[in-house]
Amino acid sequence: MEKDNVSYTSMQEPEIKGKFHCFILLGQSNMAGYAKALESDKVKDPRILVLGFDDNPELGRVKDKWDIACPPLHESWWGAVGVGDWFAKTIIDKIPEGDTLGLIPCALSGQKIEVFMKSEPDSKYEWVVNRVKLAQEKGGVIEGILFHQGESNNGDPEWPNKVKTLLEDLKKDLSLGDIPFLAGELLYSGGCAGHNELVHKLPSLIDNCYIISAEGLEGDPSDTQWRLHFGHEATVELGKRYAKTMIKALGW
What we know:
Blueprint: E1 2-3, E2 6-7, E3 20-27, H1 29-32, E4 48-51, E5 66-68, H2 83-91, E6 100-105, H3 125-137, E7 140-148, H4 159-174, E8 181-184, H5 196-199, H6 202-205, E9 209-212, H7 232-250
Parallel strand pairs: 3-6, 3-7, 4-6, 7-8, 8-9
Antiparallel strand pairs: 1-2, 4-5
């Protein structure tokens, strides 16, 4: 497809200036986003970049290439605002003016934690690793991981240990060190609220782990089938909560 007589697949990536502070977005649909993005979510900051999740001709975005961030950061067809959008809009104020922020979207809607694990058949583990390496090859410093997953493993008592194993493998294979790992609570309403008991076990298993509260956040009224997803304002607020916790964790 061509845009303005230039193949969008060959468009030049934006310049990365200064230190490249990168964050991994990992999990399932509530990390990717469910509520539709509004125009107010789409205001761009040239200092905030995203690694293309898929080809998005409408935005001129290309899979595995850097672009100025705006929603959707994940699946093009869904058009959602996600946690990463307002995380970035909030934390950018703490990054020196000459530096750049990079988001690495790796959430897969509707998937169990096993889908990401290195030891599982048909795992997406190497896909995640390869995307992070694309950032590292550009000089990206992985500052932290934003994680929101659990709905598809609702109530699985082994889930906390599976998350621990996944994180240990990622840290080892990507030489990440003990970077902050922020795990979000699931929606308090709906059928997965009880899984939050397992979410709260993570800090006892994972160093430098923080829990992001979902208290007071409402579900999306259009989600009548699953009743698991955060609404628009809740997603915006959740992103801000991740940012505020990450700022404290990094000492920024």
